[in-house]
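Problem: given the chain below (449 residues), write out its structure.
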Amino acid sequence: MKNNSHFNLLDWLYMDDAAAEIFSFEESVKNWIAIEIALAETQNQLGLVPDDVLVKIQGLKGFQIKDTDQFFSASVNVGYPIVELLKELNDSLEPSAQGFLHLGATTQDIMDTALAMQVKKCGELIEERIIELGDVLVKIITEHSESIMPGRTHAQHAVPITFGFKISIFLSELSRHLERIRKANHDSGSISLFGAGGTSAGYGKDSAKIRTEVAKKLNLNNVNVPWHVSRDRFIQSATAAAMIATTLTRLAREIIDLSRTEILEVAEPGGWHKGASSTMPQKRNPVMSESIIGLAITATGNAAMMFRAGEAGHERAAGEWQLEWKVLPETLVSTASALKIAVEMCSGLTVNVENMKANLNKDDGLIMAEALMIGLAPKVGRERAHDLVYSAVGIVRSEHIDLLAALKRVSKGILTDSDFTEISTDSYLGEATSICKISCKEWLAGKIS
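Solution.
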């Protein structure tokens, strides 16, 4: 068997074995054979394959390629593996049973149907991982719905939020991703038995019956229009995975940023030498987040190439199909791998509530600037209130005094002390805590739908 000639450290360290196994050579061969057997069983019901022959064909279940080097050599010569597979399957049968496999089918029928089975299965694994991650996030949100911290826009302090609120936004995305991946799994799990040019002529007068029955046997959707060059269902699966990967990248980036030494509001799970540096003993690098980002960006990059696979011309592709063999499995496996790490990371996430509180005051109370402006707006108008607070902010930054004191100084002659109301951070959270409840409720409802 031909081995990869290059060493891929990202996959070697972090690839999800369960996801990778779905697209392995062994699993692919098993699926190809399962489709050929299901086709023969269906054609037997229609009198096209004799009973005694079918028994022997059914015995091919579990067949393994003995000489993988020969198999790969022959497949390279043909350009596809099905011709050599059929030769080896027929050679393993008694002469009287040979010649009844693959009746009416074309190579792409078998390979596309097998890929549909694999995409659906890996998509279901991704679905399971999304549910695992979402459930972990619900726990974090519930515990920290009132854990106040700085909200940051353009990487700077903006207004107070809670950590639960921040995570609620990620959970809401996961709710939508769950709906999308379920739809993609359903749609991609569709049979492709339409013959050479898509007309099903080679299957004979009972072609529709054959396709319907084989789809049932393989637990796939029966479709009545060929899709040899219509790759939209697979593009949908790749896109759904890429959107999940994008959310994971954002989540991982958030963890990295919030774990900076000068912020230290959260930290990845630790342990002896977890994220250690070879030369700086104090380092605890956020390696889980970093691996998520590497895998997730790989997924989104590969998913983008799937759109080129949808550009195939005429009734069968000439090159675009080959692109799909590489990028579609890698998109799904990378996404599943990133999800697995995200579940582990979030399950052991350290949340430093005290540092969150301390960071609220790092800018001498400027995080409450909007609150003070909104409070003054009814008295002097929003624009003038904005200018007054803006002027006060400049004083705070230069003199490091309290924002309210600075505001009173710049408002002298305009406002009196009775016009000012000091507002605490926990009284300026808007809908933050209710959004925590809403996101969790929507998640639980969507998870079981």
